Give the backbone structure.
Amino acid sequence: KRQEEKKGMEMEGASPGGGQRHEDEAGEADTFVTRRRRAHVVEPDCTAATVDWCRRRAGDRMGALSRRRSAGSTSSLRLITLGLLAAVHLQGARGLPRYVDESSPVDYQDENSVKKAKGTPLDGRSFELRCKVANDQPNCAVAQGTWSWGQQYLCGASLCFMVVTVDADDVVFTTSPALTAHMDSRALKATIQSLDVTPAATHRIRVYRISDVLGFPSFVNRRDLEVCYDTVPAGAGKRCVQIHFGVPPFHLRLSVDGGLFQSSAVARTMPYQTSRVVVRVRDVNALDRVCIDLPATYGQVSGVPGTNGVIVEDAAERAYFEWEDSGECYAATRCASGLVGGELCADGEWERVFTIKSKTRNTTLTFGFEAQSAQVKSASRWSAFTDQSSESAQLSLNPVLGVPAFVDSLPGANRVAGTPYSMQRLDTCFINCPMPTVGMYSLLQIWTGAQGSYSYSTSEAVEIMPQGELPGGSVLSYPPDLPLPRYDQRFAGNFHLQGSIASVEIDWTPSKGQEGRDHTLCFTARGKVSGKTNVRCFVVPVARCQYCTIEGDSLQSLSVDYKTSWLQLWSANAGPLFPTDVASNYPINPAHLPPQTRLALGPLYHVKAHDSLDSLATRFHTNVEHIMELNPDLVAETEHLVVGQELCIIPDVCPQR
């Protein structure tokens, strides 16, 4: 730089105006910085008279700068070129690292013999570790002699896979945080080993093992079970595989008509009376789907697909079986507590419901594993793995003759819906909105003969009476008995039903003070001659904080009844609340409300830890008496509240001034 600056100074010489360089600069190897800093350098002003001189000087300076930049660029280019040549020289015949994929077998040395192993799993490959169930608990300990996926390498008591590379110095493995946490807590153990290859040239085989699985590692996301690997040096690309702990569904059990869940259940029911059965099973794989299919012994019942896929019609003596949801098996089997986020069954309890109508023949239905046929199974949502339950549960139907039976509705024979099944929960009702009429039907048939060859003889007159106290406002009506000749329609299991059918119809409109609770209505059917009885109950829930208007209601009148502001009620009902509400009725007219308009009185609050009626009254600017009036199921001001309990609270949002 100094030489170039000096040369530039020498080329400048004298200015066109005859001015000379200052005498104390003579002979000095002046630098660009020094020259810029010296205040006494004399240079003419760039006026019109000296414009040519200024242009020449500017051109000389730009030229010097360009030469300096060119020299630097040339040096950098030479260094880069030398570096690339050196890299190529060092690499020699060796290319970038790459994987030998799973479709290409590779020889390796094991116990003084040469064997073949499949290559590296593709990115996203899934492995399954099949677990067992013992004493209603999953056990994922790996059995001795378990083979790894798709290859001939025996892992022993572990799950393993191979990574086969070419031109790589090593392979590095990483595990997902959840899997690592289980390894740290010794729920899992992972080891990595190398195998000798034949020939030993450029191949390298590394084996990743998972062993010593203690209990069942519970994961909720496929990425929780991930192992990733990459080559050293990098170049082949990062790949990841997922591991599926395949636990078959277990703890299979049944509940008949709302009873306890048992692995062996007995239903003592009357001919032509329907029982509702819930089949439930546990599956600990959080992202599994579960299928509860037809019982293995479904040939003993009618109403299910036959061998040719056609629905088998009723027979006179065979019980009638019907799924509540007859759709595809995995779609029809539901998470008992509801799916979280549309896919996660948090408590692992799955169920499917069916109804069965007894006839005169004893019947045994077996669900689950029976005679090498697995009817209960699970499937992973993110892989093709399925696990079949090895357990079974049995339902025994033992018809009881000579006792009144509650029967379903018959087309053209009764005007309202038939008898609810035992403890059936009807649709939610609302204050001032009438409950749909419920019909209860019963008959008592007299049979002759023996098991397997019973024949109908006659029927006995039956009366249906309420058992216990019914909710206030209930209205009962008793239509005349219906003499039914033998029913020859093959409909819902009523084929060959006959006799004198008694009935009662129940109407009820809940009133203020009956909200926020479940009302159980029970009825007894009794033979007028034999005195034999049968009881049937059903449940009617009444919504909390909901109201149906009647003639003459207005927001102003309701605000007085419920100690709130009409404006607060109006803003809480800005649009339809229910699918059946008419959108054109909104926004509502504060002065006139059409009858049977459903309104929300206020928000529903779910009790949290340490809540009390006093603390809630203070928090929402109300009082304990008002909270108890809105929640008539509360019986005392000091009542202990349960976490999650639902309460209607109308906060004082719009206070009257």
